Amino acid sequence: MNATPRWLTSEQKAAWDSFIRMHEKLMGRLTRQVRADSHMSAADYIVLAKLTEAGGGRIRFLDLAKLVEWEKSRMSHQVGRMAKRGLVAREECPEDGRGAFIVATPAGYQAIEEAAPVHVEHVRRLFIDALTQEELDTLARISDRVIAHMEKQPD
User: Fold this and answer.
1) What is the domain count for the chain?
2) What is the value of pTM for the model shown?
3) pLDDT tens string for the chain (155 positions)?
4) Domain harbouring 41, CATH code
């Protein structure tokens, strides 16, 4: 059952290519800035940000992996590296003997509290300041719409 590919129109390809270029440039710059400013990887930053945004600085391991869209093995390796540096700890889940919580340690809180203000300034400088509030509102609506659409699609 070979279906004919639904190729992108030139306008669709231009929009897609532009989006990808912007995303790669922005993520590359922000990743380099986080490392230079805080000596954390982008992965360290996102894990600590998600943990510290959660009530109590703790999230179940599988929920954290789903939240950042990572495979279990990637999350396991990342948490292991961060635990060795004292940024997070793994705690057993009392309700589920097989489950575990990932918890931000005091060192993890300190690291994200020091990195976040500098990071948000780079986000503002590289992204927010380039757009009007109306453009930001439109982008948020578009992003939410694409996310809702993706969640209805098979993985």
Assistant:
1) 1
2) 0.87
3) 568 999 999 999 999 999 999 999 999 999 999 999 999 999 999 999 999 998 889 999 999 999 999 999 999 999 999 999 999 999 987 776 677 999 999 999 999 999 999 999 999 999 999 999 999 999 999 999 999 999 999 87
4) 1.10.10.10
144 occurs within a structural domain:
yes
Domain hosting residue 99, numbered range = 33-152
Residue 3 falls inside a structural domain: no
Q: Which long-range contacts (CB under 8 A, 24 or more apart) does 106-113 make?
A: 108/48, 108/51, 108/52, 108/57, 108/82, 109/52, 109/57, 111/38, 111/40, 111/44, 111/48, 111/87, 112/45, 112/48, 112/49, 112/52
